[in-house]
Structure to design on (64 residues):
């Protein structure tokens, strides 16, 4: 995987994380400005870990 592809994967991972957590916060009626900012910060801070998890999941799925 090239550096550019990795950066794209991390960006998609952040988006997936934010959408999933955002809908969860909305559904639980817990969405506040502070909670959203915490979620955004977590997505930014953990971008590499999120991408690694997505890649591992994709590899496992493709092996089946």
């Amino acid at each position: 995987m090239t550096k550019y592809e990795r950066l794209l994967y991390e960006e998609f991972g952040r988006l997936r994380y934010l959408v999933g957590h955002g809908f969860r916060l909305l559904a639980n009626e817990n969405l506040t400005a502070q909670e959203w900012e915490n979620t955004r910060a977590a997505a930014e801070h953990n971008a590499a870990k999120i991408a690694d998890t997505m890649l591992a999941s994709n590899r496992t799925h493709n092996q089946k």
Q: What stands out?
A: The mean pLDDT is 92. The chain has one domain: 3-54. The CA atoms of residues 4 and 10 lie 10 Å apart.
